[in-house]
Structures are given as C-alpha cells and as structure tokens.
C-alpha cells in the first residue's frame, strides 16, 4: 500500500506569467520520494484534500445525529466545487506551491474501515498514521516554503496561505484513495506581486537545495512559515518571527564565530552576536541592521519581561525581514 502526501500553498507575492501552463520544480527528494513545484492551476492537486473535508463534515453530522451517516454519492463533485470556491477567493494569477510525495507501507490495521462502494474512495480511522506520514514530508515542505521566504523581495512578506494539506493512502489493487481520520477539525492586506521568471525559478531551486553546511537554519525557516501563516494573530506572529531570528543568530554564532570553548556558558549577549554576524556578512549595512535589531529587541523585552503590550505588527515584519536577509547572506557563503 502507498502512503501519499499532498500540500498546497498559495504564494500571493509570486505571479506566474500570463498563459503559463508548465509547472516549475523547486526541489525534490528520494527518501521518501517527493517533489515541490510552483504551479499555476492547483485544482487537480486539491481533490484529495477537499474530499477529506467533505467526508469529515458528513462524519460530524453523523455523530450529532447519533448514528453513522451514509457516505454521499456526490462527494467527489462536492469536493471539486469546494476546492474551486476556495481557489476563487485567491488572486487569479498567483502561484501555488504543491508538494506531492509517497512511500510504500505495510497494510495498516485499521480500527474502522469503510469502502465507499461506487464512490472512488474509502475512509478509515487510525490514531497515528496520518501524522506519521505528514511528518515524513515536513523537511521538503519547509525547504520549499523556506525558499519562498528567502526569495521574497527585501522587506516583503511572501504572503503564504495554506490551501490545504492531507496524508492519505492509496490501495494498489483498486487504485482508490483511503482517507485517514482522527478527531480533528480545521482563515486585507496590501502586498506586491512579481512575475515568476526563469531567474526567480533558478533562485528558488538554489535556496531550496539541501546544503552540506555546518549550520542548518531549518528551525528558523519553519518559524518564519509559522509567523506568516499566523499573521492575523499578532502575538503568535511576533513570537515566531523573533524566535526565528534569535535561533538563527545564536546557532550561527556558536558554529562559526564563537571563540570560547563549547562547554563554556560565557556567551556574548545576543546583540553582540548579531553585530558580529552583521559585520561579517553585510558590513556596509551592519549599523542600520543593528539599529533595527535593537528596536525589535526592545519590543521583545517589553513583551516578555514587562508584560507591556504594544503594536506587534511592524516588529514582527522587521524580525522576519532580518531573519530572511541574514539566512540568505549565510547561504551565499555555503553554496549547495
């Protein structure tokens, strides 16, 4: 049996050229096999994601009715319409990141399994399999989304928006998808869009490539994605943005610039560590970036130590900006 995974993200700040029909590969991996692409038409990739949602709605109705509800025969069409409606709410020419992957597994021991009969799918309950499959593909997802973050224009957020993500199974005999369930349920800002060019596509491939670098900033890239996905929650977005910057500065300094023994607890203050990194990687603008870092750090201290709440939107944006900028500068020193 095949374990399948698919995720679709809208990228509001990258527009595909008019009439573009071909997908642009960003990155791929072999174990488990997966590929991440920019596509102009995500609808064909959304069927399994939205079918799961339609089935979940039906199951909830059955729970409230106190008896199992029959699976409707029009599920595929309902799912297609829901996917089309969701995509219609997004800019007509924005690009979409699609991550698609699979690997073979032994046939699981389902607690409950229902074959939809004439419908081309089945449904099953399993407590852990869905998250396990999703976790196997988290690396390529965050590499692809991290590349989108790092390729964003100076000072801009990539405006990522998750359309959907789903792990499911594929029955090799019937070729039916089997949707996995646990007890779970599942959001106007101005921005600029730039057209995807071959230069931008090449830049994304370079940024998403796996590097044999001594310091891996993947944790910071995951936090940047979390900050962008939660941009409507100012507190969550700021904490994620600041953490992305702090973890990157601390980790890179320890790996590349520290002069004290690793076991020593006498590290320079975080501001000094950022100053060292900025002076090395971007000496011409180090002073301005340090001043911006100080502004963000003051907000961080007011929030964490004084419980003093301020408008966090601009500091969050600035922390993301600095983190993206210096991860890119670091990548420039360790080509793939």
Structure characterization notes:
- The protein has ten helices and nine strands.
- α4 crosses α6.
- About 5% of the residues have low confidence.
- It is an alpha+beta fold and 336 residues long.
- Strands 1, 2, 3, 4, 5, 6, 7, 8 and 9 form a nine-stranded mixed beta sheet that branches.
- The chain has two domains: 193 residues, no CATH class; 122 residues.
- The radius of gyration is 22 Å and the shape is elongated.
- β5 and β6 form a beta hairpin.
Number of strands: 9
Helix content: 40-55%
The ordered string of helix (H) and strand (E) elements is EEEHHEEEHHEEEHHHHHH
Rg estimate, integer Å: 22 Å
Terminal CA distance reads 35 Å
Put simply, the count of helices is 10
Q: Outline, from the CA principal axes?
A: elongated
Proportion of residues in extended strands: 15-25%
Largest sheet: 9 strands, mixed
Please identify the structural class as seen in this structure: alpha+beta
Task: Work out the count of structural domains.
Answer: 2
Return residue spans where pLDDT drops below 50 for at least 5 consecutive residues: 62-68, 183-193
Index terms:
10 helices; elongated; alpha+beta; 9 strands
Topology:
Elements: E1 2-15, E2 24-30, E3 33-39, H1 47-65, H2 75-88, E4 94-104, E5 112-115, E6 122-125, H3 129-136, H4 138-151, E7 160-170, E8 177-181, E9 194-195, H5 198-208, H6 218-229, H7 234-257, H8 270-281, H9 286-304, H10 313-333
Parallel strand pairs: 1-9, 6-8
Antiparallel strand pairs: 1-4, 1-7, 2-3, 3-4, 5-6, 7-8
